[in-house]
Amino acid sequence: MKTIFRLAVTCGLVWLTGTLAARAQMGGADQGPTAALNQITQFLGKDASYTADYETKIVSAGQKGAISMPFRLSLNHGDSRMDMDLAKATIPEMNPAALQLMAGMGLTRMTVLATGPAEPKTGTLLYPDKKMACPLPQPNKAKAGKTAALPEPQVLGEETVDGRLCVKKHLATTQDGMTAEATWWEVKDKPGVMAKMQAKTHDGTIDLRLTRLDAAAPAAALFQLPADYRKFADMQQMMAAVMQENMQQMLQR
Q1: Which residue range is the domain that position 124 belongs to?
Q2: Of 21, 90, 122, 213, which is least surrounded by CB within 10 A?
Q3: Contact (CB, 8 A) for 14 and 82
Q4: In whole angstroms, how large is the CA radius of gyration of the chain?
Q5: What is the DSSP string of 183-252?
C-alpha cells in the first residue's frame, strides 16, 4: 500500500517537484506532488486547519546516507500548502555544485499548493525568489477512483511526544503485492496534527517529527497565487524562462 508512504515521502521530498512533474507529464500524474498533497489532506482530515513545521529523515533502498529536510505544512479546510528550502536540506548524493547553481538561479526555495473546491485539488508550483509559477499535472482521476479505501488504523494507546499528549496509531496494508506500514502519534487536543510519524515499505523508511505548531487558521492568501507572480503554462516553459533570464544576466556582467 503506497498511500501512507507517498504521504510521508511527499513531506520530505517535495524538493523533487521538478522531477516528479516531468515524470507526471510523461504519464504518471497520479504519482506526482499534487496527488500526494491531496492524500495528505484526506489522511489528516479535510477539517484540519493549522501551520506546522516538520523535520523529516528519508532513507531509500540503495541510497547512500539519509536525506534530511525541514518544511512547513499549512492546511486550511481541504487546501494545502508546503514550503521548503533545498539549501536547508542534507542530501548526501546531491552534487554541491548543482545546489550552488540552483541557488544562483533562485530555485532552492519552492512552494507547492493543492487548492480548489473540486477533488482532486488543483496543484501549483511556485518559486518565490523568481516570482514564477506553473500548474502541476493533475492526478489521474480514473486511477484515483480505483484506489482502495484505507482501513481504520489500530489505536495503540496514548503517549507523550515532545510534551504533547498524543494518540498512537498504526496501520499496515498490502496493495499490488507491496506492503507498507506506518505508526504515527496524533496530537490529542488537535486532531489532524501528527507530532511524529514512522513509515516503512520495501522502498525505504521515513521519520517525521513536528518541530513547531501554530494552531491558528492560516490566512486565506497563503493558498492563492500572488498577483505579481508570472504564471507559465507548464514546467517546461517556466524552466526555459529561468534559463533565458540567467543567461542574460551572465552576458550583462
Answers
A1: 3-152+204-252
A2: 90
A3: yes
A4: 18
A5: EEEEETTSTT-EEEEEEEETTEEEEEEEEEEE-SPPPGGGGS--TT-EE-SSHHHHHHHHHHHHHHHHHH
Residue 209's pLDDT band (boundaries 50, 70, 90)?
very high
Q: Which distant-in-sequence residues (6+ apart) come within 8 Å of 140 by Cβ?
A: 29, 30, 35
Neighbour-count burial for 94-117, b at 16+ CB within 10 Å, e otherwise: eeeeebeebeebbbbbbbbbbbee
The tally of domains found in the chain comes to 1
**C-alpha cell, 249:** 544576466
- Amino acid residing at 81: R
What cell does 52 get?
A: 506546522
The answer to the question of residue 48 being in a domain is: yes
Identify whether the C-beta of residue 73 lies closer than 8 Å to the C-beta of residue 11. Answer: yes
Give the integer Cα–Cα distance in Å for 92 and 96. Answer: 9
115-131 pLDDT, tens digit each: 877 666 788 999 999 99
pLDDT tens-digit readout, 180-197:
788 999 999 988 899 998
